[in-house]
Design brief:
Layout: E1 5-6, H1 12-23, E2 26-27, H2 28-38, E3 43-44, H3 47-59, E4 63-69, E5 75-81, H4 83-108
Parallel strand pairs: 1-3
Antiparallel strand pairs: 2-5, 4-5
Helix pairs in contact: 1-2, 1-4
Length: 115
């Protein structure tokens, strides 16, 4: 059985934005479970890390929230992506792809390439 990895600092916001982009409004617990599900249950989302990220994204205007009943009829705060959130997601996606391409170059480089 594989041990779940914690989400790396700085990547959780991107995962939250993309999850809301794909699935629409969700409450915090739902966001955490979906991120874990999408990762193939290889990632663990800590609630103590998730909610500060959601608060920061809301303060930045990337997400908006409202109280509504959840699936089990409990009051929950549902988060949705805003227009600014869509723009932030695109910028973060491009930044992540660029960083990943740079790291990939390090795995491909050979000594003779540097000579």
């Amino acid at each position: 059985m594989k041990q779940k990895m914690d989400v790396q600092q700085g990547t959780l916001a991107l995962m939250v934005l993309k999850t809301l982009d794909v699935l629409g409004p969700l409450h915090g617990y739902g966001i955490a479970r979906r991120i874990e599900q999408i990762s193939g249950d290889l990632l663990a989302v800590n609630q103590g890390t998730l909610y500060p990220v959601l608060l920061r994204l809301e303060q930045e205007g990337a997400v908006a929230s409202e109280w509504s009943p959840s699936e089990n009829n409990r009051r929950a705060r549902f988060y949705r992506l805003t227009r600014a959130g869509h723009k932030l997601l695109e910028a973060e996606k491009n930044d992540w792809e660029q960083r990943a391409a740079i790291i990939a170059r390090f795995f491909e480089v050979k000594a003779q390439d540097l000579g």
